[in-house]
Amino acid sequence: MWDIVISALPKLLEAMIKYTIPLTLISFFFGIIIAVLVALVKFLNPKVSGIVLVLWKLLRTIANLYVWAFRSTPLLVQLFIIFFGLPAAGIKLPAFTAAVIGFSLNTGAYASETIRSALLSVSKDQWDAAYTLGFSVPQTLWRIIMPQAFRIVLPPLSNEFIGLVKDTSLASTITIAEMFQLSQQYAAQNYEPLLMYVEVAALYAVLCTILNILQNYLEKRSSKYIKGDE
Hints:
Blueprint: H1 2-43, H2 51-71, H3 75-85, H4 95-121, H5 124-132, H6 137-167, H7 179-190, H8 193-222
């Protein structure tokens, strides 16, 4: 039994380093960029009029539709549409690119609501005080609102990141040889599916445990100067 586990371990670790970790990091990076942009579009109410107001409302409608679409459909279906469906429309993407697009868009939809909620939780008095000091909207966001929202949004976004690590196993369904697909291949060869799936589950657990420790550290650092926090 241990021979099977040990012989499969190097390849599983290689798949983790080559696919699982890069796929998670790249997708989360782009997902957060999308999330911040969408959250700001839904959160801000600029004092504009005319064509600019019409365009802003159109942009907000698009943002709402995007969030609705990706929160209302399974991630697996989204990956299938991007990788297997788009070629019918003449758009054929490499598997890794399709996975990054799918995971990024899905992460962006969920994280945007988290970020928007954090922005809404900051008191309106903060905006009034900033305007009194002559700050513009971008300055107020960057210097006052965002730092306060960051502490609020850190735990849920960390959970989103850890969830994305586990969701990358779905990339196996669009031919990416990440850890889970590799464990399936080994199970087909050695006829030990339970052993292989437990081994890959243990690797995911180790990776997520490390991220949990990092999350706790970041939360303590972000709460360092808050009265009452240790």
